[in-house]
Amino acid sequence: MDPLTNAVLGLVFLVAGLAATVAMYMLRGRQAISPAVSEAAPVVPLQPKLPRAAAPSTAVRRGTSAVRSTAEPAKKERRWYRVAGLDEVADGAVAAVEAGTTSIALMRQGEQYGALAGICPHQGGPLAEGTFDAGILRCPWHGWGFDWKTGASVEPKHDAVPAYAVETRDDGIYVQVEEVVDTVQTVSDVMVDTMVNWGVRHVFGMVGHSNLGLSEAIRKQETQGDVRFIGVRHEGAAAFACSAYAKLSGRPAACLTIAGPGATNLLTGLWDAHVDRAPVLALTGQVDTQVLGPGAFQEIDQASAFQAVAAWSQTVLATSDHAELMNLALKHAVVERGVSHLIFPDEIQVLRVPDASASGPDGRLGEVGITPDTRSIDTARALLAQATRPAIIVGYGARERMEQVLALAEALNAPVMTTFKGKGQLPDAHPLAAGVLGRSGTPIAGSLMSQADLLIVFGASFAAHTGIDRTKPIIQVDYDRLALGKFHPVAVPIWGEIGIAAELLREGLPDRTSAGAMRAEISRKWADWRAEKARRAGEGRGHGIASAAIFAALSRQAPADAVIAVDVGNNTYSFGRYFECKNQAVLMSGYLGSIGFGLPAAIGAWAAAPDRTILSVSGDGGFGQYMGEFTTAVKYNMNLTHILLNNNELGKISKEQQAGQWPVWQTSLQNPSFAEFATQCGGYGIRVEDAGQLDQAMADAIAHDGPALVEIISDVALT
Ligand SMILES: Cc1ncc(C[n+]2csc(CCOP(=O)(O)OP(=O)(O)O)c2C)c(N)n1
Ligand code: FES
Ligand SMILES: [Mg+2]
Hints:
The protein is an alpha/beta fold. It is built from 22 helices and 27 strands. The protein has a six-stranded antiparallel beta sheet with strand order 1-9-8-4-3-2. Strands 11-10-12-13-15-14 form a six-stranded parallel beta sheet, sandwiched between helices. The N and C termini lie far apart (85 Å). FE2/S2 (inorganic) cluster binds at residues 120, 122-123, 125, 139, 141-144.
């Protein structure tokens, strides 16, 4: 080939290759996610986001003009980058370097250099990891060869790879690349912007192959301070973190995954949110629409996989009204208090939509202050007037309305007991507090319920675990009509907002004269129970510390306003029974009852309430499921403390086997030193083998500024 033809051909290959590379690289994130982005100020649920420069109009524009977008050429600029020192690449070698955001295979032959795109045009093989010989760079995957200067394929019919200009300067080797510099918004930009307008401030997840366009939109929002991304080690932790975030704050956070395995990893945590009625937004990547169907790599039918758990699920298409899809996702999550799911095929994420507008929640949600119907209030008042020993049971659904419920309790002089999920909704030191009812509860609550002649139940779901006595007359208040009389008839089902209902019930109550008696009775029962707890705390068989001692110490050491995420197992039952709450918020995997919830939930709680002390409690079995997330806590310097009860056993399962007269089988655990593990992750770890060390160890761990773990050797039999 004569030199002129050679040069012309090289130029053609160069231009064609450049276009391909630019398109390919448009799909890629531009730089690493910065962990140092400042936390956005906490927001009121569903308020528009903080004002910022160049905020898009929140007007809803129906039918975005998305599809006209891709035909428009992106604005590009040529830039030189220093990619290597003068002697960094050995003669005859190829090295992987970066010119800005472009991956380059840099080759050296004598004093000459060649620079080709680092990604093979065949299936994306890493060219810089290939072989370079006699002026030909061969891809390590399937062996395609490319001329090291022009990028032309040495085999007929194969595509060329882009080649770049190289210069040797005094201070090193420079490569010139063409970069996209325009800021035309993408489908992802519009949707993430809309998501932020709905008040979503945190995204938990893992960036990867099929979500990079979406990740880029999140990254951009993060650099503006509007959203924070927390990269986890397992997507299941992202979903649990979102679930806990919503349980604590009432607001949705989002979780982000790739297609296939990333998406399926979310499912346990999403089920937790679904069955406990917590709003969560799941964002999953998907393969290109072009290859949807035949079973491409990592392609699964995500819509079907999420069908049973999602209140609402949609695939984002080129012709979708993108902002509106995000509106609907968040509206369903918030109103139905469940999981919404958006599937983002890869190429749709980066469709350019210059004329589309973001949207938001304005005018899309009604108030939830439902006033109960007067007939049911009148019937309930008549029952209250006759009752001599009414008792109040509060569930998790009443957590935001405790002030009104307690005012009613005071007026009635009624003891107030909580479900396990409602633990902490009133301080145990309150003169009418009777602690937790049921299997993880106190004998105080149990005996006061059995002596009551009327139960007034607010926001509880009548789980078997709580064991609300159905033989008693019951007034039940809930704002979910399906929850009323869910398993059996109740005397008066009241549909309405709990605070409003409690106030209406309080109005016109007859004067109750036995004011002091009930308080004195409750106080006596507490004294008896505390004496019993102290006796149990003193027990020891030389096989570890008794749970009563562990939770007595935690009751002393946990700050009054801490958030405590618990797990599942004997450790959790013991927490329910022995820990005495001040004003702490307790988070749990209630209806799903998944072990492993505790640590990821603490991560979610840390994001939702950065100013509160965050604690989590689990056993060795539960911690083992997501222990990798301790590194996540270290990475983001989360100020949280995990209390780990190590009994070398799936203790609760052993107990179940014994109770069912099965042999105890396969419940022993092979554990590392968890305290050392925490230290090796870069956190603070301490091991406690003696009850006398509990308080100091907990105090030190809680005082530590960053993630801490207290490993307590506990006795499996002393729960
Ligand atoms: C994901 C999941 N797998 C299994 C179970 C069943 N399960 C309930 S408690 C428990 C044992 C937990 O052991 P550990 O965390 O050590 O707590 P311990 O009972 O010893 O305090 C298991 C396996 C579950 N609830 N969730
Ligand atoms: S990916 Fe390079 S030859 Fe196949
Ligand atoms: Mg255990």
